[in-house]
Write a structure and sequence with these properties.
10 helices, 5-stranded mixed β-sheet, Arc Repressor Mutant, subunit A, 2 domains, 9 strands
Length: about 270
C-alpha cells in the first residue's frame, strides 16, 4: 500500500523569518522603517525583529550613515533558511541574485528605495513590486527589455534601469510564467517604472533619461519621487522641454510615499 508522505512542521516564527529574509534578498537591503511599513508594525518592533535575525547571523546589520536608518542584508545562512522554507511559507524566494553590498555612496538611495517599495507593496497587494536587482535578472532570463530603457549620451547607448517596477495583476511579471488569458482585443497591461530621485543630476543626463522614458512603449508610465523641492522643480522643468514627456512621466514629492525617514528632507 502507498504510504503518506510526512510533511515537516515549520513554525510560524521560522516562516516569518524566511519571508523577511527573502524580501531582504530581493531588494538587496532593507531598513526597520521599510519592514514596519510593509508588515504594518511599529518601527521599534520591526527593528527588534531585524536585530534578532542579525543576532542569529541570518541578517547582517550595517550602520553606515550617522542619523540615518541602519541597513540589513541577508547572510548566506539567512538565504539558505529562506530558500528552504519558501514552499511551506507560501512565499517566493528570489533565485539568481548576487550577494548584496552596502556602500556609503549608495546608502541613502538604498534606504529610500526600500521604504518606497514597501509602501507600494502595502498599497497594492495584488501587484508584484520588484527592485532593480530582480529586474536585471528577469531581463537576462527574458533576453529582452521588460522595464529598462536605452539612453543616448555622448554618442553611445547605455542601459538605464528604474529603481522599482510595479507589475499589475495578470501581467508577465516573471519571464518563466505565462500571462493570464485576456480578451483578444484588450492590450496587455504594462508595468510602471518608479524612480527615487534624491540628487540633482546634470541637465544633460536627466534630459537623456527623461527622453527615454517619454519614448518608451513597454511601460505604462514612469513615476518619480523627489526628495527636495529643488529636485522636483528640476524634473518638472526638464519634462516641459520634452515632447509628450508629461504624458508618460509623473513627478511627486517623496513624502507622498514615505511619511517619516530619519536623515531625509520630507515635507509635511
Amino acid at each position: 500500500m502507498p504510504t503518506a508522505t510526512a510533511t515537516a512542521y515549520v513554525s510560524p516564527e521560522t516562516i516569518q523569518q524566511g519571508r523577511t529574509i527573502a524580501w531582504t534578498t530581493a531588494l538587496g537591503a532593507i531598513t526597520a522603517e521599510a519592514l514596519a511599513e510593509r508588515d504594518r508594525l511599529s518601527i521599534d518592533v520591526a527593528r527588534e525583529q531585524l536585530d534578532e535575525l542579525a543576532g542569529l547571523e541570518l541578517l547582517e546589520r550595517h550602520s553606515v550613515l550617522v542619523d540615518h536608518p541602519d541597513l540589513y542584508t541577508a547572510t548566506i545562512a539567512g538565504r539558505r533558511l529562506a530558500r528552504k522554507h519558501a514552499h511551506a511559507g507560501s512565499y517566493t524566494y528570489p533565485e539568481g541574485l548576487r550577494t548584496a553590498r552596502v556602500t556609503i555612496k549608495d546608502a541613502r538611495h538604498t534606504i529610500a528605495c526600500a521604504s518606497v517599495a514597501a509602501a507600494f507593496e502595502r498599497r497594492y497587494p495584488g501587484h508584484r513590486v520588484i527592485g532593480e536587482r530582480e529586474l536585471h535578472r528577469d531581463e537576462r532570463k527574458a533576453r529582452r527589455r521588460l522595464a529598462s530603457v536605452d539612453i543616448r549620451r555622448h554618442g553611445e547607448n547605455r542601459s538605464h534601469f528604474p529603481d522599482i517596477v510595479i507589475w499589475p495583476p495578470g501581467t508577465l511579471a516573471d519571464p518563466d510564467t505565462p500571462p493570464s488569458p485576456t480578451s483578444a482585443s484588450a492590450p496587455p497591461a504594462l508595468p510602471v517604472a518608479v524612480e527615487v530621485e534624491l540628487t540633482m543630476k546634470s541637465k544633460q543626463e536627466l534630459t537623456a533619461i527623461l527622453r527615454a522614458w517619454a519614448n518608451c512603449r513597454h511601460i505604462e508610465a514612469a513615476l518619480y519621487f523627489a526628495e527636495t523641492v529643488k529636485v522636483e522643480e528640476r524634473l518638472l522643468d526638464t519634462i516641459e522641454e520634452l515632447i509628450k514627456a508629461d504624458d508618460m512621466i509623473v513627478v511627486n514629492p517623496l513624502s507622498e510615499m514615505v511619511r517619516s525617514l530619519p536623515g531625509f528632507e520630507l515635507s509635511e
